[in-house]
Amino acid sequence: MAPTSTPQTPFGRVLTAMVTPFTADGALDLDGAQQLAAHLVDAGNDGLIVSGTTGESPTTSDVEKAQLVRAVVEAVGDRAHVVAGAGTNHTEHSLKLAREAAEAGAHGLLAVTPYYSKPPQEGLYRHFTAIADATDLPVMLYDIPGRSGVPINTETIVRLAEHPRIVANKDAKGDLGRASWAIATSGLAWYSGDDMLNLPLLSVGAIGYVSVVGHLVTPELRAMLEAHVSGDVVKATEIHQKLLPVFTGMFRTQGVITTKAALALQGMPAGPLRMPLVELSPEETEQLRRDLAAGGVHL
């Protein structure tokens, strides 16, 4: 049974986009995934994204994705929303992933903008609608033009919001003006998908975040959100500013790389990366330590 949700917070408020742990030989580490999921929920996450960008979804198989959903749902599905990445740049493949995620017990779907092929807005509309029609699960759109090559225009977001199962958007567009209009006109639950903009997006109507740095600082992220919701803008700003070195350090390179390095230094399940991602150099690891320490995270 999924945790309780509301139309305003369909997947909770504080979600971490979880890495996919691998064993030393590169195989899927399901025990590690369950341990990490439990750790993240214990830290204060009320939702987890599996098989998103940070989960190395481009290099995991369909079978592995379904196994991962089952394992994480088994570990924390009674305490947290488990949202499965199902978006690809091939609509039929995305529908297959959506159905398999539903069969594996996912509570919701994350659907990224189709990447590389740069479809027009009508193509985006039909793609996301097809995913929403494929199962009974609620869907979170994922708008990240820096990776996908095209934005979901505000007009398209508003149009998609008419679908009863498209209930949220993960915003990694980096445009607060467009976000303001889309939040005001779409009625979707809005989640920050860019850690540096977590607080700014809350200020224009976002209800929570899908975070990478949540692997390390979930309590601080939750405290910042609660301060903002309660009207303590000064405290929320103080927390945001304290975390700036963490945001900076974790995105000096690809976030999966730094997250797995930080988790390994903490003794948490992470494991190697799958090519073409590569591990941090010793110098980069020391820079990450310095960045995190400046934000209060000591490894």
Low-confidence regions: none
The percentage helix is 40-55%
Order of helices and strands: EHEHEHEHEHHEHEHEHHHH
* Mean pLDDT over the residues: 97
**Termini separation (Å)?**
36 Å
Distinctive features:
12 helices; 48% helix
Q: Mind explaining what this structure looks like?
A:
The protein is α/β, with parallel strands linked by helices and 299 residues long. The chain is 48% helix and 12% strand. It has an eight-stranded parallel β-barrel with strand order 1-2-3-4-5-6-7-8, surrounded by five helices. The longest helix is centred in the last third of the chain and has 18 residues. The N and C termini lie far apart (36 Å). 53% of the residues are buried.
Draw up the topology in text.
Elements (H helix, E strand, L loop, with lengths): L13 E4 L12 H14 L3 E4 L11 H15 L4 E5 L5 H13 L4 E5 L8 H14 L4 E5 L1 H4 L5 H7 L5 E6 L4 H11 L2 E4 L5 H6 L4 E4 L2 H17 L2 H18 L4 H12 L15 H13 L5
Parallel strand pairs: 1-2, 1-8, 2-3, 3-4, 4-5, 5-6, 6-7, 7-8
